[in-house]
């Protein structure tokens, strides 16, 4: 019983796993971070 639950949970987690190099728009993140940094220093 526990083995089956683990296998189902593992399959669900694997189906939504992120690829940080392609799923996150790092350029947009850097723009927001720079804007927040500039706002906090003034």
What does this molecule look like?
It contains three helices and no strands. It is mainly α and 42 residues long. The longest helix is centred in the C-terminal third of the chain and has 16 residues, at 26-41. It is elongated and about 55 Å long. The mean pLDDT is 81.
Shape: elongated
User: Tally the helices: what do you get?
Assistant: 3
Total DSSP E strands: 0
The main pleated sheet reads as: none
What's the SSE pattern? HHH
Q: Tell me roughly what share of residues is in helical segments.
A: over 70%
Radius of gyration: 19 Å
Distance between the termini: 59 Å
Mean pLDDT: 81
- Derived from helix and strand composition plus strand pairing, the structural class reads mainly alpha
Low-confidence stretches: none
Strand content: under 5%
Record the SSE blueprint.
Layout: H1 2-15, H2 20-23, H3 26-41
């Amino acid at each position: 019983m526990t083995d089956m639950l683990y296998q189902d949970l593992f399959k669900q987690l694997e189906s939504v796993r992120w690829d940080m190099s392609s799923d996150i728009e790092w350029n947009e993140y850097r723009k927001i971070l720079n804007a927040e940094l500039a706002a906090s220093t003034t």
